Amino acid sequence: MTKSNCKTNNGYIEGYYGKMLTWNDRNRILEHLQKNKMCKYLYAPKEDTYHRKNWRQPYKKTWSKNFKLFCKNACSKKIDILFGISPGIDFNFKNLDDIEKNNDFKILLKKCSFSLKLNARSIVLQFDDIPDNFSNKKNKELSEGKAHAILANRLSDNLKSDIYVVPRIYSDELIKPTDSYLRDFGLHIKNSIKVFYCGKNVVEKKINQSSLKKVSGFLRNEIVLWDNFYANDYCPSRLFIGPWKHRSSYMNIMINPTGMIETDLLIIDIVGNQLLNTDYKNWKNVIIENDIPIHFLEISKYFKSPDFTNKPKFKTLKYKIKDVKILDELLWSWHSEISREWYPFLMNLKLDLLINLGILSEDRIVKTQTNPITSKILKQE
Fold it and tell me: Which residue of 25, 95, 323, 325 pairs with 21 in a disulfide if CB–CB is 3.0 to 4.6 A?
């Protein structure tokens, strides 16, 4: 196997809900990662039932064949494939001290070992987005943080491979006042294991050393930032495609975007441009170079960035009938792979503008909006 030249942890996370890439999509992403000198790809699709819900079941032969070819392609491009697995919902943590008696550990170890034989470079053990109900499980002697750390340590010892972990608490905003999870996790996790973390918030406005101030008090481990700047699975009617601002190019950051292949290739180019040039002002050039009509820039204010933090501030924008005309031109005159991905976002924005400007008829509101929103709008009118 070709030795990786990957010296950073910049790359792409296939870790969103509601979308599933094809193998052809994934190979296209590898090309864009290589072009932009990014060298990590985390395979962790939430919609892959063998990743999370049915993590105990082995992958089918077809998947194994495709994954091996995918890893081979990545290797030729000096890109590391990280194999993610998420057993935390129902893993049996009993008898972790004697792994011969823990059947779940044997299954996990076998599945991770198999992915490494297929030429995955590293394993990512994921505990993100699982219920906070560990106290109801079988092993009463372990705290949740300690249990997750011990499992990662055991996996690391037996695989002799790089291990990453996504802890259940992966952002400061998820920490409760009486929570000891990160403290216990940090006390027991091996220093050599890398940890994914989002920062102060799940969707972080600024990623720098300050983003890691709190978690650094618990962990001595190397941190890889899981960046949800472009993610929209939590708000699927919205799209974020603006400059990748307020991110330090000197930190280990991997992006978790949309799962729409054409959009994600564009996002990789935007991020790569920022990493190579450290100047987000080149964003407009990247948009134009990717054959997005130049008049999209006139309405890009609606797609620039998410509303950050757990207490977002409402942005005041100037809504103009001119914006509706630009949207009409994009909707009916622009034809490409990416325009088809963006169609629902452009159309929904047009309808929202017409409603806000008070020029969408009542029958069109009833036809185009969901019942709860229609009820709210028409009552206000």
Answer: 25
